[in-house]
Amino acid sequence: MTEPTRLNVGDTAPAFTLTDDSGNQVSLSDYAGSKVLVYFYPKANTPGCTTEACDFRDSMEQLNSLGVDVLGISPDPVDKLAAFKKDHDLNFPLLSDEDKTVLTEWGAYGEKKNYGKVVQGVIRSTVLIDEAGTVELAKYNVKATGHVARILKDVS
User: Fold this and answer.
1) How many domains does the chain have?
2) pLDDT-derived band of residue 1, with 50, 70 and 90 as boundaries?
3) pTM for the full model?
4) Is 54 a catalytic site residue?
5) What is the CA radius of gyration of the chain?
6) 129 - beta bridge partners?
7) Are 110 and 123 in contact (CB under 8 A)?
8) Among candidates 26, 55, 66, 72, which has minimal Cα distance to 155?
9) Which GO terms describe its cellular component (predicted)?
10) How many CA atoms lie less than 13 Å away from 85 in the CB half-sphere?
């Protein structure tokens, strides 16, 4: 197993088109001219991922006031994302990357430590893309709790 290739500040964000929680196609290019925060999480309706998603939900007004949209991406199928969004009244799109192509391209899938073991999996990550499609902020191996507050400090 090898370390995933990570995005760095100044890199061009890799393009993607994925299916959202409503079955619509969503592309990164849909957000051209705006800032978009793309966050990657392992699995819908698990404790850490729920905490993180609800933090984003509760901070959406603040993020939007800074001109930032949010997209959540996980390898969950669309029906699981729809249930997760409904269960927690999430106010941003959740995108399905079942084959993990986007997760891998963005450095959010690969080798990680889980309870002291090295495993392949989703690396909880957050990447802020500016209006021109360039990486403005890239955080990997983030902790779910308090993560959104740290992001807000970085972008405001």
Assistant:
1) 1
2) very low
3) 0.94
4) no
5) 14
6) 36, 135
7) yes
8) 66
9) cytoplasm
10) 21
